[in-house]
Amino acid sequence: xxTEDQIRTFHQTGHLTVAxxxxxxxxxxxxxxxxxxxxxxxxxxxxxxxxxxxxxxxEKTLLRKLDHPVHYRDVFRQMASHPNLVSxxxxxxxTGVSVFFSQVFMKPPEVGGPKPVHQDxxxxxxxxxxxxxxxxxxxxxxxxxxxxLFYSDAPAHDIFPHExxxxxPFNLQILSEHARHLRMRPAPxxxxxxxxxxxxxxxxxxxxxxxxxxxxxxxxxxxxSARLVSPALPYDASFAVAIG
Length: 244
What we know:
By secondary structure, the chain is of the alpha+beta class. Helices cover 27% and strands 23% of the residues.
């Protein structure tokens, strides 16, 4: 369970880091399954979807991300349903929640690309901005060198305009005239730890120029009383997994 101080920090800053939520064994299980899934996925990846899932500008074929691990993979569904994690989610956004979207970010060594500053609620478009919560789980130590998350100093009460580069609809980012005024600070997360953030909190990650991977899972929870009414990208409700 989160302490009152931790809950206060989350509401004051829009994010919170909690170490040692998952054991080394649980993380190893997730990584073993991720390795199998990655091989299966790459073997059948259509040409039309390569830009969405692969790192750009690499000589090797390297995955950038995978979508819906909570829907497709038992190991990640068990992580999303972990009693300790679910208790913390309930403390932050209330009971009766689903994981409506989930991702695994690979951020491979030396070539893992950056993610520009953005707000998750721009992507999701919920009718209640306080009904979403992103749970970002470090499958490797996430450091400044290998591309940990950066957050703005304080949560945003509004959603800034976003745009995507040509040919990259998945890469929505806050317009530069707004982003340049945000002060971003690194939020390293140890392996097995979690970074929680509010859907309005501006955040980004830098490129991985280290020799170490920075794999992470992101589970996006939604209070079941809320709806996605103006999403910037399509989200298929059939992938949602009710958690409790």
